[in-house]
Amino acid sequence: MTAQRVCALSDLEQDAATRVEIDGVAMAVVLDSNGVVHAIGDVCTHGDISLSEGFVDGETLECWAHGSAFSLRTGKPLNLPAYEPVPVFAVTIDGDDVLIDPAVKLEVN
To answer: Domain Rieske spans what residues (predicted)?
Structure first.
């Protein structure tokens, strides 16, 4: 599979998450305060809650329901109750297009 356009970079709000879906894979796309675009799995590993409805703080996305914060870089939970990471996807910016390949999950330590 190749990367697909999910939105325009200009459509993203800084420090906010946007839900996108490619071939049934839901992702939360975030433009952080440093201008970096991240894409992580949209479903909190603690419960079936959309992370894109959560709160962005720096390089973290916090689940609104139970407060688990996930690293936008690694997908790892930074606090309980979640203890399993969410997937992190490679993002490519081409002009004003945000491209993501859902088959390419980053392995970040």
So the answer is: 4-100
Residue with tokens 């992580």: 40
21 and 5 in contact (C-beta within 8 Å)?
Answer: no
Q: What is the 3-state secondary structure (H, E, C) of the chain?
A: CCCEEEEEHHHCCECCEEEEEECCEEEEEEECCCCCEEEEECECCCCCCEHHHCEEECCEEECCCCCCEEECCCCCECCCCCCCCCCEEEEEEECCEEEEEEEEECCCC
The pTM score is 0.94
Taken as a whole, the chain contains a residue count of 109
CA distances to 3, 23, 68, 82 from 76, in Å: 23, 24, 10, 9
Q: Where residue 77 falls among pLDDT bands split at 50, 70, 90? A: very high
